[in-house]
Amino acid sequence: MITATPQRVSRTGQAGAAYVMLWAFLVLNLAIVELMLANPSRPAYNTLVQIGRVFGMHLAFALALQLLLIARLPFLDRRIGMDKLTTWHRWTGFTIFWLVLLHPTFVMLGYARLENASFLSRIPALGKQMPVLLGMIAAGLIGVIAVTSIRAARRRFSYEVWHTIHLLVYTVIVLGVIHQVYEGSAFKTNNFTQAYWWGLWIFAIGALITGRLLLPLVRNLRHRLRVAAVVSEADDVVSVHVTGRNLHKLHARAGQFFLWRFPGHNRWWQVNPWSLSAAPDGHSLRLTAKAIGRTSAGLRQLPVGTRVFAEGPYGAFTAAARTRQDTVLIAGGIGITPIRALFEDETLSGDIVVLYRVRTPADAVLLGELRNLAALRHARLHVLTGRTGPDNQPFSPAGLLALVPDITERDVFVCGPGPMTNEVLRSLKALKVPARQRHAEQFRLAA
Fold first, then answer.
1. Cβ atoms within 10 Å of 245's Cβ, excluding its own
2. Euclidean distance between CA atoms 426 and 445, whole angstroms
3. pTM for the model
4. Residues 8, 10, 13, CA angle at the centre, nearest 5°?
């Protein structure tokens, strides 16, 4: 049996250590940037130019931090979780957007005042200087990425289009580094500043290349993944079974997800995050997806034997996060996939209650498997149907208590549409379920 106390100490300690390292990295580097600003290589021409320089230095660091966040470092991912790291990525992205607006604006205002010229007249003049022009191009690309990240705009694009647009961030980084090296006076202050910036960029770019290119290439060459079977689960839901060599060496866990590509069937940039819908057994992996975008809709036509390129496993939504003996698993719609895998995980011992929210019983994907697992594990399975209304609010505080009276004494794992997940988390907070017992997975993926 798995005892609660050792798990709680281990898991909380791991996540806490990861957050401490992340914040320490942030604070330490910001302190170094402030020291460099306090000792510039040459005085600014005026206050406006100095303010622009301050924004520029912080912009350079924010870009490096963004690289580290999208590098998907295993140390952070396995302790904090991809969805929480993506929240950092999102806020860093919008910070970069505002710094990109403020940095050139103040610099141009400063030079306009210095030369007694208009602000707009400085734009073509600076644009004729190649390092500055590269910075302007990078700023424009950041604007495109930021606009498409706004929720209202995001809903208008398929996931594949949105993801392709966000690949522009790599072009931004290249242009930004060139701009800083050739134009940034703060980069050339002294040997220390040059060593710092080169060290930071080498570390960030090295982490990105290792995490997003080298490690996936090595893993896929080692495991040689192929499609073994394609099974229709419903009219708009399909499962893909993947096999390969030595899959136990992937160390994948129930509740985690991979980024899946199918070379030859889809374009290389078309990648989707799909959870494992069955606990990995060392011999095969299974993903289950609903036909939402072009890639997911095309899974039904995947030929057996198709090559598979997978990045991962990612995510901290696993049984290792438990702090209590008993568990509640809550799913909505296709969010059942990681919940179903967790339900099968043998390390998830104790009493288990599963709450599955769907519009109608016909919408309950993998229901037969869930019922078999419930019988095998002596667990309780509640399929919650119907429209949400005054008389049907299963995820309100009162609704959760009615279904699971001892919910405050359990770990709660929830995965589903954003509004449903947020409602469950609000109710758990209202019921005073400790934060360490609340575990949620939301696919807010970075590029």
1. 10
2. 22
3. 0.81
4. 100
Burial class (CB in 10 A: 0-12, 13-18, 19+), 298: middle
**Token digits of residue 183:** 């134009």
Q: Are 391 and 384 in contact (CB under 8 A)?
A: no
Omega into 313 within 30° of 0, i.e. cis?
yes
What contacts 24+ positions apart, CB below 8 Å, involve 7-13?
A: 7/320, 7/322, 7/323, 8/323, 8/324, 8/436, 11/320, 11/321, 11/322, 11/323, 11/436, 12/323, 12/436
Kindly tell me the burial class for residue 406, based on how many C-beta atoms sit within 10 Å of its own C-beta (0-12, 13-18, 19 or more).
Answer: exposed
Backbone angles phi, psi at 275, to 5 degrees: -75, 155
Q: Which of 202, 211, 201 is nearest to 176 (CA)?
A: 201
Give the chain's domains with CATH numbers.
4-217 (no CATH), 224-314 (2.40.30.10), 319-441 (3.40.50.80)
Contact between 240 and 103 (Cβ < 8 Å): no
Order of strands across the sheet that contains 309-314: 272-275, 257-261, 309-314
Task: Return the closest-CA partner of residue 309 out of 213, 212, 225.
Answer: 225
pLDDT digits (tens, 9 = 90+) for 142-163: 888 888 777 776 777 766 677 7
Per-residue pLDDT tens digits for 330-348:
999 999 999 999 999 999 9
Segment holding 135, helix H or strand E: helix 130-149
Alpha helices in 215-326 (DSSP H): 215-223, 294-298
Are the CB atoms for 320 and 269 separated by under 8 Å? no
Paired with 275 in beta bridges are 257
Beta-sheet pairing, 272-275 with 257-261: antiparallel
The residues near 288 (Cβ < 8 Å, ≥ 6 apart) are 233, 237, 238, 239, 240, 274, 275, 277, 334, 337, 340, 365, 366
| Rounded Cα gap, residues 290 and 444, in angstroms | 17
Please state the φ and ψ torsions of residue 110, each to the nearest 5 degrees: -65, -45
